[in-house]
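Thread: Newbie trying to understand structure tokens

Hi all, I'm a second-year student working on a class project, and my supervisor (Dr. K.) asked me to get a predicted structure for one chain before our next meeting. I've only ever worked with sequences, so writing a 3D structure as a token string is new to me. If someone could post the tokens and maybe explain what I'm looking at, I'd be very grateful. Here's the chain:
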Amino acid sequence: MTELPLSIAVETATDDAAIERLHERTFGPGRFARTAFRIREQTVHERALSFTARVGTMLVGSVRLTRVTIGTTPALLLGPLTVEPPFQSVGIGAQLMEVAMEAARAAGHRLVVLVGDEPYYSRFGFRRVPLGVVTLPGPVDPHRLLVAELAEGAFAGVSGMVSASR
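---
Reply by user tm_fold:
Sure, no problem. This is what the structure looks like when written as tokens:
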């Protein structure tokens, strides 16, 4: 397979419309009903910790991080991680994840939470949250609620509801 001329960059305000169209194509209108989306719509994402992927000038992927709290503990909510369907399964999502997780760590963040597939996200340090320890303000499959420690032991003793930070 030919190597794609991929560039990863910090998201800017000029990316907003293209990212929204990407979310629309990949997730459809059902995205608005998802619990994680409902949390994210209550605040703005951290643009300095959110990234885009382009092949040439075409936007093909995006990942966003949003400040939240788990109970009283500061954390980040990852998502959505989005890659254009024709460009999936070639490592673009993984590159976006690696850049976002490293940027969060470098900025001093200690925890990242997301709702997603453990088999995919475990390679980035995510593991399933023990049942009942962390809740979201709406329905979510508890087996898909994942957390990654960016600092060793950061999740010890953390519990409560995930809510948007303002």
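A couple of things are worth pointing out once you decode it. Helices lie at 16-27, 35-40, 92-106, 118-121. The mean pLDDT is 91. Feel free to ask follow-ups in this thread.
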